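LOG
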Amino acid sequence: MFNCLQEDIRSVFERDPAARTSWEVLTCYPGLHAVVLHRAAHWLWSREFRWLGRFVSHLSRFLTGVEIHPGATIGRRFFIDHGMGVVIGETAVIGDDVTLYQGVTLGGTSWNKGKRHPTLEDGVVVGAGAMVLGPVTVGANAKVGSSAVVVKNVPSGTTAVGNPARIIDGEQAQRREEKAGQMGFSAYGLSANQDDPLAKAIHGLLDHAVDTDRRVEALIKRLESTGVSVEGELATADEFDPKYLGRIVDYSI
C-alpha cells in the first residue's frame, strides 16, 4: 500500500505542473484521496464485506466529490486531476497510468447484470466533462476530448472528440483540429444528417472551400502548361482532401 501511495504521488508530479511538494499533494489533492480510499473500499468489497466497502466509498464521495464504486478495478498510478464530479461505475476496468479530469463519467447504459461499464486500457487520458458509456473499450494511449460522449470502442493511440464521439484520424488531422479550435471553429461536432441550420451552413461553406480549391488547382495547372512558373507557397500549399474532411466531420466511431 505504501509503495502504491509513493507511485501515486510521483504520478501527480509527472502530470500536474502545479504540484509543489509531496506534503501538499498528500494533504490537498482530492483525486489522490479518492484513489487511496477506493483501494480500501475495493479490498473490503472483494472480500465480501460489501456494505462496509460501499460505506467507505460513500464516505470518499462526501469528502472528495469523486464517486467510485468499490467494485471498480483500477490499476497503478491512476490520477484524477481536480476530481470533482468524477463518477466510475461498478464494472469499470481502468489500466495503469490512466488520467481523468474533472466531471468525467464512466457509466453504464443497461440495467442488466454483468459487464456494463467501460474498460480504459493503459495510458488513456479522458478530458474534463467527457462521458464514456457502456461496456466499450478505450484502447491503450488513446485520448478522449473534453465533453466528448463515447459509446463505441476507441482504437489504441487515437483521439476521440465530439458528441457522439468521432475519431480524429492521424497527426495531421489533430493539428488541423487544434488550429480550428484556436480560431473558434471545430468541425467534429457536425454531422451531415443534422437539421441544425448552422450545421448546414457550415457544411455549405466547407463544400465551397472544396470547390475553390479545385478551381485554384486547375488555374495553376493551366498556368504551368503555358510555361508560367508558379513558385512559393502557392505551389507548395497543402492539398485539401474532401474525403479526409468527410472522415473528420461524419465518421462516427
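LOG (cont.) second protein
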Amino acid sequence: MKKYLAEMIGTMVLVFIGCGSAIFNNGCGTPAQVLMVAVAFGVAVVAMAYTIGGISGCHINPAITLGVWMSGRMSGKDAGMYMLFQVIGGFIGSLLLYIIIATMPDFQSATLTGANYCEAGAVPGLVAEIIFTCVFVLVVLGTTDSKVGAGNFAGLAIGLSLVIVHIALIPITGTSVNPARSLAPAVFNGGDALAQVWVYIIGPFIGGALAACIWGVLSPKKK
C-alpha cells in the first residue's frame, strides 16, 4: 500500500507545483514563462524521484506505468493500482490549487487549474502528445534499466528530459505527456479543456506504449 500512496503523493506534488507555476505566472505566453513552467515540472519530477523513487519507482504518470508494465517490470495489478492512485493524486493537487486561488480575482477561471487546451487543434495536438510522450517514456525506460540504466542519475536525467519536452511542446498543446496531470485540471476547469481532455489521455498512452515497444527492441536481451 505504501507504494500506491507514494504515487498519489508524488502526482499531487507534480500537479500542484507544475500547474501552479503556470497559474501564478499567468500562463505560458512568453519564452520566460515557458521556461519557468518547464523547469517547475522537471524539477518537481527530480525532487519526487529522489524522495519516493526507492518506494514506488516514482512513475507519477500513467503513461510511464503503462510502459513499465509492457516492459515486464511490474504486474498488471500494480499497474492498475498505480494509475488509480496517480489520478487520485492529480485530483488532490488540483483541489489544493482551487482552494488557494478560487477567491483571487487576478486569475481568470480559464487558468484556474492549469488545464491543457490545444489551440492548434485536436489532431496536431494528439500527434505531438504521442511523439513527445514516446520520447519521454523512452528516457525513463532507458535510464532505469537494471542492466544499462543511469543508476542514481536516472531521476536527474528524467527531470531534465521533462524540461526540454515542455519547452518544445508547451506552444503546441500546453504539454501533458501525463494523463493524471491533465484529467483533474480539465474536470475542474470544464469547457474547452474538458472537451479536449481525450487528447491528453489517449496521446500519452499511445506514446507510452510505443516507447515500451521501442525499448523492447533496443534493450539488452536477457540470457
